[in-house]
Structures are given as structure tokens and as C-alpha cells.
Amino acid sequence: MRFLPALLGAFLLLIGIVRRAEAQPSYKTDIAPLLQKRCVACHTASSEGRAAPFALTSYADAARRGRQLVQVTQTGYMPPWKTTTPGFLHQRGLTEPEKDVIKRWVDSGAPEGASVVSPSQKTSIPVPAWPFGKPDLILTMPDTYPLAANTNEVSRCFVLPTGLTQDKWVRAVAFRPSNPRIVRFASLYLDTNGQGRQQQALSGSVGFYAFASGIRPLPQGTLADWSVGADNMPFLSGVAVKLPRNSDLILQVRFQPTGKPETERMQIGLYFSPPQKEMVTLRLGVAELYLPRQATATQTDEYTLPVDSLLMEVTPNFHPVAQKISVKAESPEGKIQEILEIPDWDAAWKQAYRPETPVRLLRGTRLTLRVSYDNTEANPRNPWKPSHRVVPSLEFMEEMGSVWLRLLPVRPEDAATLRASLPVKPRSSFDIDELEPEGKPRPRPQPGPPVKTQPAPP
């Protein structure tokens, strides 16, 4: 019995050591795997071709920015993941336990820990030239685009002739910026009537201004989109997008000026497959959105499915004056399902969302969109200071006002029925909530002094 106190003391000491170890995460056992999973896809060395302003690929990188990591992860600013709807692929947001691990690691002095990192937990990710291997077709911007040091012209369109002599089916698209630091977002539009070439001929410079181009979001939406922080994603097995012969692609790029002259010449990699099931794109939103200055507004739209379909992808296409986005599905029995909720929209982190499992929607399901806008100076993301009238345009400082949903008919023979039912233009309502007297119509914006845009992430 005389040994009992000593044994009890040793046991309590062991428990204390274990608890202290649990309370003090280390870089190599806890933080490195987490950074690899959530962060280093962007936060690699700039020489490896990523867009983030600093690397997080070593212990020194992470320890030096420990307090900053705590601040941006606790507030949810980083990693960027705007939707609150669960069940999407490539989810980047941190869970509460993961946020807590980072905070406890920094609070405990950011210990490096023992060298127990497995090969699957490397702190540096090799960046392949192309994510899915060598593309079947590589398209390059015809000329290098010079981005001025101080400009408000942050969107530009470029024509990419495909040179295809026969129809192709695209199973994946990869975007490869030459200067990722200045590219925030890119979209590919299909052009089958030479509209882009006409605008390029009128431009007199490299590319053409999205605002003045007259190009609008096409009924089929985009071929693909890319944004900072989002992965290139192939379509699901057995699904592809048809690329007609003799067509062009319009590449729209949104730039982030750095305060010094920059250049960009992006490449696009296309991956083909045999003929596959083809998705149909539904556009919900405002066909011609005009939002007066100093106004807030609410937009709604709806569409009823004529055939059983699978929802494969949903892409919100809104600019800085949008604030809240909600897409829901109401079944024929009246059951409401959340498709996409973004309570705090930030156009700097626009991306496509793909469900982990395609969402089955029965014939008669009603899809609804509800969006709130704030074009007042109280909106910190409003790029217009003072507030200006916002008009429909691909230009970032204007508004697109739509959500694109890629649908796959359950029965392939229903594709024609679904496509024929799509509205030529969105048939939505747009209600102005508050309005001050409108001044004279403003001219189209021209390049000039810099305006306040969404800052690059820290």
C-alpha cells in the first residue's frame, strides 16, 4: 500500500503529459497536413506558378505568419469558402476543430515537433504543368496582354480560335495563367457566329473591353470557369460538353492590378472524349439588370423542370453589389431543398460548386433564385465611389445577375425537351427597395485613375 501514492502520482503525471501534448499541436504532426490539404494549392512559392502573395510550404513560412493565420482562419476569411451549404466537392473551409488546432499551435509557441511527416504529408506540393496530363488541344492567347499599373479596366476578353474541323466533346478544361498574381477569375464562352472576332477587329488593341463588347452570357453559360483558390475540375465520368466545329472560344479574364506594369498570356488546355451525355445549362436571373445609384434591391426568378434531371453544377455569376444568394428546389410534393446558400457574397471568390453526388430533381420541381443587392456607398465592396448606376455587363464593376445550373436529364431522350423549355431570357422580377433621384445617365467607364476594388488576400 505504501507504493500506492507513488503509483497514483506517476499516473497523474502521465495524464498531465498526455493532456499537455494534446493541448500543444506541432507543425509536423498537425499543421503541415492541414496546410497541405487546405492552403498550399495557392500558397506555394511564386516560382511554382500560384497566385497567393506568400508561401506556406515550410515550418518557417507558417511560424512567421502564425498570428496572421489565426486571425484569418478564426474570422473565416481564409481559406475562402463562401457557401454554407454542405455536400460540395473540394470544400476548402476549415471546421471549428481545425481552426482550434491552428490557434492552439500558435498560442503554444508554434512548436515544430518531431520529424514524423509521412510521404503523404509533404509540406510542398509539386505543381504539374497540366493537372490532367497533356491536353488534347492547347489554346494560347494570340498576343500578350499588357496590364497597366493603374487602371480600372480590370476585365478583358480575348478570342481563341479552336481550328476544329469536326465536333468535339470536352471532358475537362484546365486554365494556365502565365502570371497568376494578376489573374483573379477567368471564363470560357462559346462563340459560333464570329461575334468575338468582330469586336476584336474594332478594338485596335490586344483583346477588347468586356463592357463595350456587347457580349452577354450565352444561353448555355460558360464552357468552364477558373478562379483563385478553386481547383480545375473535370466533368463527372460519362459527361461532357459539346464543342462545335469552326467555333471560337471567348476567354474573359478579370485582372487584379498590382500597381506596376504586368503582362499576361494565358493558355487553355482542352481534354476530349468520345461522345458523352451532354448537360443542359439553365440560367436563372435578370436578363437586363439596371440598378440605380444609392439603391438596394431584391431579385427573384423561378423555373419548373419538365423532366427528371440531375443537378451537376451550380455557378453564381454576380459582381460586387450582390450581397446574399439563395437557390432552392421545391419538389412536386412541396418539400424544399437547399441547393446553394451564400449569406455573404464576395465576388473576389466567385467559383463553380459541384455536388459530391448529383442532386436528383423530379419532373415538376420548381427551382427558385433570390438575390439581394446593395448599390449604396454603405456597401464596402461596392467599387463605385460615389455610387453609380449599375448596368448589365460581363465587366466586373457592373452586374451579370444570374446563376447557371448544369442539368443532366435522367433519360437522354429528354434532353431536347429540357433544352426547348429553357427561357430565352430569364423571366425574373426585380424590385427596387430604396431609391434616390437618378442623375444624368453616366457614360461608359474608361481606363483612368484606379478605383477601389476587392483587395488581394493577405
The CATH class designation of the largest domain is Mainly Beta
Give the termini separation: 61 Å
CATH topology of the largest domain: Jelly Rolls
Q: Output the radius of gyration.
A: 25 Å
CATH architecture of the largest domain: Sandwich
Shape: globular
- Indicate how many domains the architecture comprises: 3
Structural class: alpha+beta
* Average of per-residue pLDDT values: 79
Q: Show unreliable segments.
A: 10-21, 116-125, 213-217, 434-458
Range of helix content: 10-25%
Assess the beta-strand content as a share of residues: 25-35%
Helix/strand order = HHHHHEEEEEHEEEEEEEEEEEEEEEHE
Please give the largest β-sheet. 5 strands, mixed
* Number of β-strand runs: 21
Q: Which strand order does the major sheet show? A: 1-11-4-8-12
Number of helices: 7
Describe the structure concisely for a colleague.
With 458 residues, the protein is an alpha+beta fold.
Explain what this protein looks like in three dimensions.
The chain has 458 residues and is an alpha+beta fold. The chain folds into three domains: 4-121, no CATH class; 128-277, Sandwich (Jelly Rolls); 279-438, Jelly Rolls. It is 16% helix and 28% strand. The chain is built from seven helices and 21 strands. It has helices spanning 4-23, 27-38, 59-64, 66-74, 96-107, 195-203, 415-421, and strands at 137-140, 145-147, 155-161, 168-176, 183-191, 208-209, 224-227, 239-243, 248-255, 262-264, 267-273, 277-278, 280-285, 296-304, 309-317, 322-330, 336-342, 359-361, 366-374, 402-409, 429-434. The strands form five sheets. A five-stranded mixed sheet has the order 1-11-4-8-12, with no helix packed on it. Strands 6-3-9-5-7 form a five-stranded antiparallel sheet, covered by helices on one side. α2 (27-38) packs across α5 (96-107) and α4 runs antiparallel to α5 (96-107). The protein starts with a helix and ends in a 24-residue tail after the last strand. Residues 10-21, 116-125, 213-217 and 434-458 have low confidence and may be disordered.
